[in-house]
Write a structure and sequence with these properties.
Length: 61
């Protein structure tokens, strides 16, 4: 499964390629201090589904 991760200190947001957290048991969620706060999320802009989120694996210095 291809997914996206955003991490800031003890916060983790794990989404699919479109930025969604589906309700099926995939392990994707919004997690803080080992507690799941969000178990479903559908990313939409102006009511429309969003396309794939871009990957970025480098650091800007």
């Amino acid at each position: 499964m291809d997914y996206r991760v955003i991490k800031e200190n003890d916060l983790f947001l794990l989404t699919d390629q479109e930025g969604n957290v589906p309700t099926i048991r995939t392990g994707l969620a919004y997690i803080r201090k080992d507690t799941r706060f969000l178990s479903k999320w559908d990313l939409r802009i102006n009511g429309e589904k969003f396309g794939h989120l871009a990957r970025y694996s480098g650091f800007v210095v």
